[in-house]
Structure to design on (669 residues):
């Protein structure tokens, strides 16, 4: 069977592990990388930088591109790139990159543009939004909702009926108890225990997690 | 091959993920749900509520029932239901629901009526008691003993030679170091680090975990 | 296919779970155990104690031994045994024991003499040193370096670009954030959150982890 051709948006480090996932999944053939900074024609992790988002219409034609995925860890940047892609090609097809070891429940709903690294578990009735990112071993319990552009980092786990707002980032080694709602654009710091709901636009951490300060939209959270 | 018929006891949310496990295991055919409150004939997660525990003898006859499993998260309620089932049908056969992703050591001993969600790991020489429940990714290290009706929630891990007493609940994101004994009917709160043994009938939490108060037998611990 | 014969060095409890891994991997046939204390001819977990390290040349001849692995949890002891083996048989071949459930990235580099229990994940571009030990579900993120004779215990996770020094032990349930360097012969206590780099030869723990005291080379860290 002929694999369908896709491109990756973003030639940074996240491209590296996204490539690992896609190669292991064996569903798609990566024709190259679209990036706004890297030199066109340069090599990134074994693949060629084909051009900029503006070049997408001609790239789709030249490389018979079926779809693509955004390989960018920062939630706000992933949002901006998805907007710019859909601005240029409104019906662009975003695919998922789900490591073969990931477990998905029979009633889990998965969006598009989702990247899930090895060992992630999405339980029944969980709703996984579009353009979300899950690092190694992130666990989403039953009846949780992870909104678009949110992320959960390595080793973090939720209880049941947890909501994680749009663009929000649950970082490394976080535990979120049952029935907690985390707002939009909120970041939960590493190793936190979240026992109460958190509002929009805050940075919170600690055990139990406390609000440390407000956060601007688009503020970076990754080191 | 003809799958053997089983019933689930309990039509609440835990039935939902237990169904997911059983369907993925492919060892049993669920003929319906036995529940003390839900309307008989109503639908729960795609299966019909067949009757009450009192109706079990006739249900076994009518549906050619091989066995069953209790899909209830609260440890005390699971205990009470198991007692009432065995009271009515003393030789009732309880089966296990073990997600296909669960890893079991070559010398691990597994009881009956055990529910283990995706990603659980039971290491060699661990002893897993009857009617125990393990949520997503719970890890039981080598030479641990988990007594009957106990539970370990998502993302919790034990060191080696840990004992967890009958009816006790290790909740979400807990770490228990090597050679710690947790008593009977004790609850360890979310995100705790347990560095010393805990007695019977207490609620303990924190890092390190401290005894917060005593607990009555049968007291609820789930939100 | 004829499996290649190996020996285990160390007849203590770690032999038990190492045997479980090797039997599940199905790559090697264990001919017996080499141990400095256990009675020669005695049984350990179903295998016979064949002799001491000093007897290795004749054991290799008599049992057609292809290689071996050290089944000892203490990092310093594992180092000393590896030295004594290589002193007697300089070209001795150390093999790995990697549980079949372990996930390894396409660009991960794996040393020799590595033991990885069920559920471990080694991400792309991680470098896993020789004679390292990883307990249940330990996760090493992308671009990390785990130096020789180091260990990571159950349920511990790292962020990306983390370095763990030679002989150092990350114990149970530890979270290490991105871009942290842990020195040589350092121990991180259970349940810690490591947010800053740690020097050589210290014991550190807490959330965030703080240096508690200095550590001597070869000091025991396991209970």
């Amino acid at each position: 069977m002929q694999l369908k051709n896709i491109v990756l948006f973003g030639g940074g480090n996240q491209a590296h592990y996204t490539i690992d996932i896609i190669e292991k999944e064996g569903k798609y053939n990566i024709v190259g990388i679209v990036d706004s900074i890297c030199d066109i024609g340069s090599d990134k992790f074994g693949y060629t930088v084909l051009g900029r988002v503006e070049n997408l219409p001609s790239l789709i034609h030249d490389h018979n591109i079926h779809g693509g995925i955004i390989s960018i860890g920062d939630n706000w940047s992933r949002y901006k790139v998805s907007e710019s892609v859909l601005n240029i090609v409104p019906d662009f097809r975003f695919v998922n990159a789900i490591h073969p070891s990931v477990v998905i429940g029979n009633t889990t709903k998965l969006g598009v543009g989702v990247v899930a690294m090895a060992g992630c578990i999405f339980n029944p009735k969980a709703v996984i939004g579009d353009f979300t990112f899950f690092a190694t071993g992130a666990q989403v319990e039953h009846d949780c909702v992870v909104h678009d552009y949110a992320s959960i980092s390595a080793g973090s786990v939720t209880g049941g009926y947890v909501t994680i707002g749009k663009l929000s980032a649950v970082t490394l080694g976080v535990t979120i108890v049952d029935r907690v709602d985390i707002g939009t654009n909120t970041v939960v710091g590493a190793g936190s225990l979240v026992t109460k709901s958190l509002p929009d636009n805050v940075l919170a951490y600690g055990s139990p997690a406390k609000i440390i300060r407000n956060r601007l939209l688009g503020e970076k959270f990754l080191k």
Remarks:
- Chain A touches chain C at residues 13, 16-17, 19-20, 23-24, 99, 101, 117-119, 135-137, 153-155, 171-173, 190-191, 207, 222-223 (CB under 8 Å).
